What we know:
This protein has a six-stranded mixed β-sheet, sandwiched between helices. It has 47 helices and ten strands.
Amino acid sequence: MSVNRVTTRTAPEEPDGARTPLRGRDAELAFIEERLDALGRGRGGIVRVEGPAGIGRSRILAEAAAAARRRGTRVFEGAADPDDQFIPLGPLLEGVLSGEEPLSGAQRLRDLATTPGQRFWLLQELGDRLREAARNGPLLVVLDDLQWCDDLTLLTFHTLAAGLSSHPILWLVAVRGGSVPSGVRTTLDRIRQAGAHELAIAALEDRATARITEDVLGAPPDPDVLRLARRAEGVPQLLVELLGSLREEAVTIENGMARLPAGPPAPRQLPSVARRLDQLSDEARELVQTAAAVGGTVTVALLAELLGRSSAALITAVRESLDADLLAESGDRLAFRHELIREAVEAGLPLPLRQALRRQAGTLPPGRAPADAAEGERPASGDAAEADRLRTEAAELAATAPGPAAERSLKALELTAAAAPERPRIIAETIPLLWQTGRAVQARELGASALAAGGPGPEDEALIRLALARLAIPFDFSEAVRQARAGAALPGISVALRGRLLAMLAVGLSMSGEHAAAEQVAAEAWETAAAAGDRTAEATLTTVRSAVSFHRMDLTEAFRQAERSAALADALGISTSLWVPEALWHALLANTTGRTAQALAVAEEGIRITGEQGRTAATRMWLMTRSRILLEAGRLADARADCEAASATDDPGPGNLADVTLRYVMLRVALHTGDRRTARAYAAEARRMRSDGAPVVRHFGSWMLALTADAEGRPDRAMAELDEVMTSPAEDRPAYAGLIDPADAPVLVRLALRAGALERAAQTVAQAERRAALNPDLTFLAATAAHARGLLDNDLAPLARAVRLYEDCPRVLARASALEDAGRKLATTRRSEAVPYFETALALYARSGAERDVARVRRRLRAAGVRKRPSPAGLDSAWPELTAAETRVVRLVAGGLTNRQAAERLSLSPHTVGSHLRRAFTKLDVTSRTDLTRLVRQRDNGE
């Protein structure tokens, strides 16, 4: 193997020479910090960082080196390069002999390295020098791009790592994922057997993609810019280069948002792709460029024909393009590692050449096409039967094992020719399976590519649009409406398919907040579904009926219809697929009507089932739904943990469902806990929501901004934020006059009174009382109405009545608020009688973890003459830093349980347990489970 020139780089430069903040790598950095902590305690070891090209391995190494230096750890950094020749052992020697504080005896080590026959003595000398340095303090040795290292570097690395394993030396090495040379593979196997820690760098989550987009462009992205950014599929290098190429000419900043005024730009060259192309031989470069012009997956035989060479003559060029991470094997074909890479390569070719290559690839004369090329363009005789078998298996597995089902469906797609009449239907079958298993980006690209390519007939196009509408429901309500409407309008499609499209259109309109349009479409869909005898569409439309009743404030009927839709969906076996929101809506509605225990039970069952079945996207939706329920129940730490767990998954964002659950909940939690930094961050999200195409998202954004302004002591600004909601068309106005939940009525009345908006306060009270009168069986609604009335009239009687009614409701924060308001009224004339109200409110706020509310009520108690601070119930005196939920998790983990075992014990998701544990580590200033266990023992023993 060749010996490579060494460079001390550990992170690539960004397009303009500046480096964007590191986003989306909190877990990876936490892992590195944990290993550095262990190193500080004298425990060395090996950490192997692995991931595909452009994923950010070098950036992780650079951050690790910086963190080590901040701790006072001595750091040596080296990296191999695939280009220039140097001396054997170059990467490792340059790492330990260069930099600010090289090893002693550098010249002797260099002499030994360049003298033939001195390998043994070189290893001995290098080992001695490292051992000597480690006696004076811990060492971090960083070695990047292991796949390009020469044989002697590989041998020396694993020999020294093994021989110095008892010393405080941490070896941090990075290697490209996928195919690597055999010598590198042998080294990786050896260090794995020696107990090396492995850190796999995955694609960025969509939230990190959005933040990087804002970093590069200087403003939050609008939906079109974010959609373009998602094309990088979470690969940081491609993302930054893509955005950098657009910054000066395609993107404008309007009203604080980055936009694409001229629409999506044409593909363009990317620097990292150009560099990799330049490193190839002429033959490999021509092969890659030809494959890019042809597009899709290609056979070696087709490339040979286009290049005028034999397939055997391309062996070296193919291997070189695979090693460069430009191409990858896809069955018996070649495909680009990433579509953006293909587009960047293609953009560097003259347009006439691209067009000529495509025409040539599509019109190879039968007499000239090699046999294997012809085979590559159409499936073998047995492929169609195999594809049918895989489709059948996928359909059977879809209900209980969507992951294996998705793989079978994708394989069936691979075996099906592009022009095969059944291909569009296989695409429509594959999209939902990909989404359910957390591959929404791939699902969306698959459907969009099929539609852009043209060819499917109306029925097939409608099937694909139905799948895309279902895919869009959690992420983009307006896009779901667009796809369903376009599909339903196609001529000549079957009655049953049109009924399902209309049902999805009604759901999309309802979730978007376009209530009048949803009701109108639902009426037409009912007739179509009845004609087709489609019970699945009936379940969906029953949900829409429930939403219509909810909008009309008939909550009893809304709940009846929600129960009916959930039961019907369950009987049909589709409730856990979550294409339509029957069960989700049922849980949210149960919570809105004050039936919190029932709502939690439904949500927890949904989380359990979807977790067992591997439905990543569905689990995320349930976590977001449960976060709303936990917020209203006053379980703020658990609500925040669910939000953080939902944010940790790979589904695209921002996402409209996340807007009206996760982001709304995080803002409310931040306001209750006095977390101003987080509140400001989610207020920025609320400003983005204000410009969304879906009315309901705009309404949520307005309410979030109003609450933020009120918390900042700006009631006039708060009321102004609600102007758009209060003046929107009545048929599409939120059912509760701009509110999110019935318990917000007193909040809005209090806010309006502070702003002097008496008329609006009176309107809110009238709405609350009308809602309670229409639903006399719902005590919770009567409590909110009495609370709002008491505030408006400044009357103790309705406030006291609200306190009594709330006693039977599980809405802890609403009850505490009523107690506080009643105490505040009493304190003006009968201070001693106010104290029990304040003390009970204080205990409820403290149990919820609402620190900001706790501080306010303590001030009221001091004003009422109570000087001794009460000891609120529900707090563990041994763990004053932690919430009750965090304390439960800490004790189980300290007892030896894994995150998953603790999750099963507490009926939580592993993500939620992990979130609680991360917060506990931060609050307790510990960095490992060992430290945590030691601290638990100390406190339990009274130390």
